[in-house]
Design brief:
Elements (H helix, E strand, L loop, with lengths): L3 H14 L5 H19 L5 E5 L3 E4 L4 E3 L17 E8 L4 E7 L2 H5 L6 E7 L12 H14 L2 E6 L10 H22 L8 H6 E11 L1 H15 L6 E5 L10 H10 L18 H4 L6 E7 L5 H13 L5 E7 L14 H14 L3
Parallel strand pairs: 6-7, 6-8, 8-9, 9-10, 10-11
Antiparallel strand pairs: 1-2, 2-3, 4-5, 5-7
Protein name: Putative carboxylesterase 2
GO molecular function: hydrolase activity
InterPro entries: AB_hydrolase_3 (IPR013094), AB_hydrolase_fold (IPR029058), Carboxylest/Gibb_receptor (IPR050466), Lipase_GDXG_put_SER_AS (IPR033140)
Length: 355
């Protein structure tokens, strides 16, 4: 059903066309005016923040999302043989993950039956999408098969209902859960404790963090937090990450203010990691970083600046910058079979597998 605001707009246009028809038209115009006045004062229809094309928040607090609300259940993918299942990590916050395990043949081919563990964070400007969305389900199925990993796709809380740092806290809780479960089998002498896929098949010494757009932002901030806890990360893959800087347009600044409920400025390292002092940035606990940039992405200059800052900080790792010409932000999530998207995924899989 059309929203009241859209309905009023349509009625107003219709009444304008009929304006010469005499009293009935004038009566209809008066009715439209009354509806318009109601829409302007009803907190359920009065807009508080318009974050098109993602969502609109109304003054009542109601949020209407335009994308990223579809759900596909966990399953065994018939094309790749990848199996998936969902686990609730924290019943209090609702934090959940979707785990992916490659085919049994791929698992058997791993070193001692163990595979790298990839913790993945979806994009969506911190306000839309989920780990259970068809786009991300298809992407993680394909990536799990291509890279031969145990993948953990994190369904973190979204703004504005849960402004930042909620997503960062969920990411930390998810990482702690993954590490604890991947290490459970080793701690208990192979008794199979913990999550069965992670404890039996996950190699905690080959732990990777990755994410696209907002998810890339989360992965980078999570890696920096892990540095303070001595948590080793084998690799960090930032796929067109949501990085900005102090000198951005008013629209981008207002969006960030909305996402974090005004808690952090545009010069905060959460959104501008280049603001980190070199002595802090160099402590990134990963020896390898992959940064992908889509040539037509307006975030590209900030993404490139991050690589320059990391290399210039004294960090001892290796950073690779992978640029796709002629494509926009996160193009690789759709049409996975296209040559550019396939090459992007092959690059990520090779990064995970050490080449």
């Amino acid at each position: 059903m059309a929203s009241p605001v859209l309905l009023v707009a349509a009625l107003c246009s219709l009444f304008a066309l009929l304006g010469a028809a005499g009293e009935p038209a004038r009566g209809a115009a008066a009715e439209a005016s009354a509806l318009r006045s109601k829409a302007a004062t009803d907190p359920n229809t009065e807009v508080k923040f318009d974050f098109t094309p993602f969502l609109i928040q109304y003054k009542s607090g109601r949020v209407h999302r335009f994308m990223g609300t579809s759900f596909v259940p966990a399953s065994v993918d018939p094309r790749t043989g990848v199996a998936s299942r969902d686990v609730v990590v924290d019943h209090g916050t609702g934090l959940a993950v979707r785990l992916y395990r490659p085919s049994r043949q791929a698992v058997a081919g791993g070193a001692g039956g163990r595979l790298p563990v990839l913790v993945y964070f979806h994009g969506g400007a911190f306000v839309v999408e989920s780990a259970f969305d068809p786009v991300y389900h298809g992407y993680l199925n394909a990536l799990t098969a291509k890279a031969g990993v145990i993948a953990v796709s994190v369904n973190y809380r979204l703004a504005p209902e849960h402004p930042l740092p909620a997503a960062y806290e969920d990411a930390w809780a998810a990482l702690a859960w993954v590490v604890a479960n991947a290490n459970a089998n080793a701690r208990r002498g192979g008794a199979g404790a913990g999550d069965p896929w992670l404890s039996r098949h996950g190699d905690a010494s080959r732990l990777f963090l990755a994410g696209d757009s907002a998810g890339g932002n989360i992965a980078q901030n999570l890696a920096m937090r892990a540095a303070g806890q001595q948590q080793r990360i084998r690799g960090l893959a930032l796929l067109d990450p949501y990085f900005l800087g102090r000198y951005v347009g008013g629209g981008a600044a207002r969006a960030w203010d909305f996402i974090c409920a005004g808690r952090y400025g545009m010069d905060h390292p959460y959104v501008d990691p280049m603001a980190l002092p070199a002595e802090v940035l160099r402590r990134l606990p990963s020896p390898r970083v992959l940064m992908t940039v889509s040539e037509q992405d307006r975030l590209g200059p900030f993404q490139r600046a991050y690589v320059d800052a990391l290399r210039g900080s004294g960090w001892r790792g290796r950073a690779r910058l992978y640029v796709t010409p002629g494509e926009g932000h996160c193009y690789f999530l759709n049409n996975l079979a296209s040559p550019k998207a396939a090459m992007h995924m092959a690059t990520l899989a090779a990064f995970i597998n050490g080449s």
